[in-house]
Records
---
Amino acid sequence: MGNGLERRKNGGREIDQEDGLRQVLEEMKALYEQNQSDVNEAKSGGRGDLIPTIKFRHCSLLRNRRCTVAYLYDRLLRIRALRWEYGSVLPNALRFHMSAEEMEWFNHYKKSLATYMRSLGGDEGLDITQDMKPPKSLYIEVRCLKDYGEFEVDDGTSVLLKKNSQHFLPRWKCEQLIRQGILEHVLS
Amino acid sequence: EHMEENLRRARKGDLKVSIHRMEMERIRYVLSSYLRCRLTKIEKFFPHVLEKEKTRREGESSSLSPEEFAFAKEYMANTETYLKNVALKHMPPNLQKVDLLRSVPKPDLDSYVFLRVKERQENILVEPETDEQRDYVIDLEEGSQHLIRYKTIAPLVASGAVQLI
């Protein structure tokens, strides 16, 4: 009856999640219609013996709804985590696994978060998706893993991030690029 | 902001600059971490957070900033809209409404917390956890530290008589 929903819940994102969801919704429609006809029979035809079956179908309906909502919400939580992990632009590989509605949820979420962060003290706000770890040193040695191009450091000076180039840069500026896999923190 | 001004005035390469910068980064980290924690809790318990705000009495101060409240409302609306459009509106008519207050777990007010007493408290009633126990009364001496169920001392946290650590 779970229709593999539980399997999908544990497995993370599956491309055919829409198919599983559709099956559950169809099953719910079928159960509901069976119940409607049985309820009419029980009322008008005096078929009190149908009541346990009606109750059972209702329980199934509630369970299907609970599993569906839990599964969908769990996906949302993972998508939410993507904003904190990857930033506001998601890699295409991940977007491929998201439905249009999930993308819309993500866009609303990141807009809401941006509005909130802009309101934090001062004119520019505070980007709380940075500074995820306590600072140990001001500058860190980083190696560039992919070609990125010009990257502005303090005082308007900029560095050219070419693949395999190494730089000694302010830690806080590098955090997001490290998370995106463009820079690598070199620990000597 | 104050420290950023100082930074601009100091000479480049000055040791003061480095230390200032480091301190700024530490402050930024602590601040960001604190605000992240708040946001995480708001997201985790969003129907309850909003319900608490809705039922707040006149004169009682809010535990949310206005911006956090706006964020919480947007989070709820966003999630409700999503669930409705993707699943709920395709379900039988009598099942289309989900009470998020009932489905989303509440914060566990019975969890144990560490606290330090700032103002002496007398005759705090500690309710039993199991049926075999009976409730009893304790005094909280100023400066003492305790590990106690949150629910027992919740009003004292709000009044500032104790401080969670």
---
Amino acid sequence: MVSAGGESRRLEKATISLSDCLACSGCVTSAETVLIEQQSEQQLLRVLRENAALPEPERRTVVASLAPAAVASLAAAHGLEAAAAARHLSGYLRQLGVQFVFDVGLARALSLAEAEDELVERLTRRGEPDAAPLPLLASACPGFICYAEKTHGKLLLPHISRVRSPQQVAGSLLKRRWAQQRGTAPDRIYHVALMPCFDKKLEAARDDFRAADGQDVDCVITPIELERLLEAEGAQLADAAAVPLDRLLEAPELLVHAGSGSGGYAEHVLRAAGRRLFGADPGPVQFTPGRNPDLLEAELAADGEVKLRVAIANGFRNIQNLVQKLKRRRCPYDYVEVMACPSGCVNGGAQSRPPAELDARAHLAEVRRLYAALPGDENDASDAVRRARETVSKELLHTEYHVIESDTGALNIKW
Amino acid sequence: MIRVLDENAMSRKLEPVCSLSGHTDRVWQVAWDPAGRTLASCSADKTVRLWSETGAGWSCATILADGHERTVRGVAFSPSGRLLASASFDSTAAVWDREQAWECAATLEGHESEVKAVAWSRSGKYLATCSRDKSVWLWELTDDRELDFECAAVLMAHTQDVKRVSWSPVEDRLASCGYDDTVRLYRDDGDDWVTGAVLKGHSSTVWAVAWDGAGKRIASASDDGTVRIWAETQPPDQWSCVALLSGFHQRAVYDVAWCPLTGLLATACGDDAVRVFAEEPGAGDGGAPAFGLVASVPRAHGRDVNAVSWSPTERGLLASAGDDNLVKLWRVSEE
């Protein structure tokens, strides 16, 4: 991981420390550290081993969902193209005992569609009494959510999108919709997600994502941990058979989206809101860098005036600046895609390390290229997306946040 | 080995100029404006005092109160002299504007705990702050008129409380030091600020760092009773310790100041003394620099001396701050 100070460090085991998460001390408590440590590649192996030892009728169905940033990272580290890497991962996970491997593409498409609706609603109702405030802030980054809940709850939470992240939408889809279709009880499904950072483990463990029959996502593992599994066997990712991924609810095997390597939120909502509210579609969005390379801005104009402004704000310094602008009511954006990691999810805290001889910057550029090159046409998927939205209840796509008072935060922080 | 101080054997004298009282609690730091006409001091009494010289001598011209809710731990003037920054245990830094009769023009929030120091970059573009939260923040002045600051970087290199930040006098390069016994250097690599060298050697907290006038060497003052001099052996990130001032201080060295006019080093010590060192070029092993003690005042303050600062315009004029609630001015006699 490259910290804000620019140092590269090898993380020895999956323990979170303050500097892995956002650059603040208010975020990770020792209780949460325990929650994170309970989700590891060792834990996954244990579950798979125990599952395999059971008689077949008693076994759980183990399913995996793969985030494109994690796939692109592993692809770059192993010199593979992204689709090939996804298939080798699919093969490798099945070797370990996972029965179904899905891309999160459909889940993310649902997230984006919900985010679009949410922004259109807020823009339409702007100025009305009790209207939800603008800017709307993306909710997909658990590092940001954690920070917002603990440090600026009252200020930020009303602005944060209520839409679940792709990881959690995948959990909802798998445990509620897909399980139902298969006639499997949700508690007979074990869902492991491959994600680019450790913060996603915190997200998976949230009470808001637990039903009586278990968490929507049981375990999050990351490229670093997957590399450890491979290393322990002396194996290369390409050694595993390339097995096509399963298709979730008739979505394509792999489904890319336009825009940033963090899910393309700002891009999607700008174009969608532009179309729906102003009849204008700017095509692929050109973002211009702001004060630093991790702050990107874009506008949509119609009838000769600027109608919408969106931004991508990556990294702690830009989160700080966003918070200050919100405090002073001087935020010029309608929507901000906020991500805790500089450069966004492609540079997530638990992504694979670059091969020794490669410059970190060049490696990141390669991860970005691979991410953008993932196949899957959004138009092909539109039927599947529409059907999924029609058959999944809104409750499963939305969530809530909680102000966490942490005056005594310093006392339970793991210094 | 503690060397016995014999004032009469010192080659120079540190003459008291005046003693400035007014603060009602320990004074933590003193800083000169670039014109050398205003001296700022900050205190556990939550205020900043500005002192200047009139016909009748030095006196308190202004008291900056109501800016902080707790101890003010550090102060620094901007390179233009128009702005004054203050660092407080209330977790904020404040910026005061001379052009608005020293009104508090901006409050920088974001640190999770006590802010220990502030420092302006030579270009005036950046203000650095450091905190017990282990981080160093860089703030960029984005609007000269509105005095808006934006966070330009959050540097998480230290593993403990960061005590001081200090910019090179010749370029926008930053040094910080702290409770993890190290000095760390930072520079802008184009996209973001990165950590360059880590200077290890002190066996306890490093309380202060100061650059020499040429921006090529750094002096660090430590709880271990020594001052270390570091030089850049291989730009940009290779540094090594080229001199060790050991055996002079009986307690923690809380501050070190390196005069760009004279090259003299002053130190503030927990043994209540202020000391001045001069470089003896090439007198060390293999032609390395060495520093000799040329003047000292054993009971400069009634208690710990917390800070020393050289006037930027008047040779040999030194300000000090102490736990005795006093600010004092001294003059080093010429050789």
